[in-house]
Amino acid sequence: MTIVTSLSASDSHWEGVILEKILFSISKEKNVVIYTEDENIVSIIKKIKHISISKDCKDADYVLNNLNKLNSSCKKPEIVFDYSIYRKDSNAICVFFWQKGRPTIRFSAKRLQNFGLKVNGELSKFVSSKN
Fold first, then answer.
1. pLDDT tier at 71 (50, 70, 90 boundaries)?
2. What local confidence, expressed as pLDDT, does residue 3 receive?
3. What average pLDDT score do residues 16-26 get?
4. What is the CA radius of gyration of the chain?
5. Exposed, middle or buried: residue 46 (CB in 10 Å: 0-12, 13-18, 19+)?
6. Are residues 118 and 26 in contact, defined by beta-carbon separation less than 8 angstroms?
7. Which has more pLDDT, 12 or 31?
8. Count of alpha carbons within 13 angstroms of residue 43, beta-carbon side
9. In principle, which of 41, 56, 80, 107 could form an S-S bond with 127, CB 3.0–4.6 Å?
10. Are 66 and 41 in contact (CB under 8 A)?
11. Contacts of 28 (CB under 8 A, 6+ apart)
12. Are 79 and 108 spatial neighbours (Cβ–Cβ below 8 Å)?
């Protein structure tokens, strides 16, 4: 259930569209800074306007974690790509993965609240109080 590592141009495009929607549904800013250690995510994010990539987690607004081995000193809200990571990681505010060819998105209401975040717009229906 992780983000696909060998994406076609079309898959990469759709993952970019979905990540953009996720980030801007929770962000209060017009420009978002993310941190990730995954080169596949970097290549997707580089194509999105108003999102930049930081080389240091401390300078980022959000972390996109696909590796399950992020620096534990980084206490930023995370978007993860594996449901098992989402369940275990207290910083994971959102999970995004493909299931049966369809994108699956879930936000944790409790974790969003812990970071002082709120999901706005059409993605608010994916906020769950279970985690």
1. low
2. 45
3. 94
4. 13
5. exposed
6. yes
7. 31
8. 13
9. 107
10. yes
11. none
12. no
